[in-house]
Amino acid sequence: MVPAGHGPEECIFCPIIARRAPAYLFYEDPTAVAFLDIFPFTRGHALVVPRRHVDRLTDLKDDEPGKLLASVAAVCRRMERLSRDYNISLNQGALAGQIVFHLHFHVIPRYDRRNPFNSTSRPPLEQREALELVGLLGAE
Prior knowledge:
The chain is an alpha+beta fold and about 140 residues long. The chain contains three helices and five strands.
């Protein structure tokens, strides 16, 4: 169940999925879309978002988790064009760091051993780099 104030009407991802808001999309299938995070931890940090608005993993219907995981795996195969090492992250609830209350997986490429999650600043994604990454990640 989606908490009050966290429904599709307030969601920043639902307009992206419906193509009413801009985003750097590079993958889509019947279950999910993937786009670049605009405040990336690392180059290529992406979000995989189910098309249907749900707040939490536990809100998915019985047949949906497998399909969503297949979408995450497809995005990871593309992410390996940037790095064979990456984190997959899911934050559930405000105390766990969830900021947007539409279920989403982070796929975060790693390029060295430094911990990108300790950074106090996450500079915004620049359009030039975003378009380059969409070109690298978008083609089959």
